Amino acid sequence: MAWVGGFIVIAAVALSGYQWLEENGTITHDQTIDVYMSSNWMVGENRTCSLNLQVDANGKPTRKLDNLQCPVGFEKVEPHNLTVTFKGVIDPVDINGNQRPVADQWKCTRGSDRFSCVPEAYPAKAPNP
Predict the structure, then answer these.
(1) Which of 1, 11, 29, 59 is deepest in the core (most CB within 10 A)?
(2) Which residues are within 8 A (CB) of 92 and not within 5 positions of it... i.e. 6 or more apart?
(3) How would you label 31-61 residue by residue, b for 16+ Cβ within 10 Å and e otherwise?
(4) Cα–Cα distance, 75 to 38 (Å, whole number)
């Protein structure tokens, strides 16, 4: 019984540690997604982008990412299907099935061969009635 108890304690600590590391951006997630951007985004340049989740037929967000909008002013933007490295939470449900916030604004940096994004702002919470 001591082995089973010890295993349960170790598993619980590991899951908590994983969630903490993920929420703090230590664990990265690569996701191929449509990125709407202008053609003049230079290597090393940072932009604030909006992350949009897919919605179901009832208008409720699903657990899938839809696109990343990275406009600058009124420049023409075009979609590009790219692999983006997200340093933070991109799944609105944690490993225990609990809801958690996903940032809607991200600071994204264009690298020479990839894009990486860190969370910048979260959606406003509805006021309590």
Answers:
(1) 29
(2) 53, 61, 63, 99, 100, 101, 102
(3) bebbbbbeeebeeeeebebbbbbeeeeeeee
(4) 6
Residue in 69, 89, 88 with CA at minimum distance from that of residue 79: 69
pLDDT beyond 80 at 28: yes
Mean pLDDT of 95-117: 89
Cα gap 85→8, rounded to integer Å: 32
Residue 83 neighbours by CB under 8 Å, 6+ apart: 30, 31, 32, 114, 115
Whole-Å CA distances, 93 to 38, 61, 84, 100: 32, 11, 20, 6
- Measured CA to CA, the distance from residue 128 to residue 109 in angstroms comes to 36
Q: Percentage of residues in the chain with pLDDT exceeding 90?
A: 39
